[in-house]
User: What shape does this take?
Amino acid sequence: MAEPSHKAQPLEDLLERVYGRTSSIRSNVCVFCKKDATEFRDALSRREYSISGLCQDCQDEVFGVDESEFIEVELDINVTID
Ligand SMILES: [Zn+2]
Assistant: This one.
């Protein structure tokens, strides 16, 4: 069971009313697509889930380019400079 990150109580209440964030996270369900949110790429993605309630797929949709791609691009630039 994931533990939802702590937010100020009025905000927590609002998020819960609007899209059931707290109850979704407590039951490991994505707040957006409502699928199981149990598999994450890394600790960062797992932590993001406790904040936003988005599963890995939805995080990828929202945040776009993943970090490993970003690192590869950086390495390419370094090779070019050398
Ligand atoms: Zn999702």
Observations:
- Residues 67-81 form the longest helix (15 residues).
- Helices lie at 9-19, 21-26, 43-52, 56-63, 67-81.
- Residues 30, 32-33, 35, 54-55, 57-58 surround zinc ion (CB under 6 Å).
- The chain has one domain: 9-81.
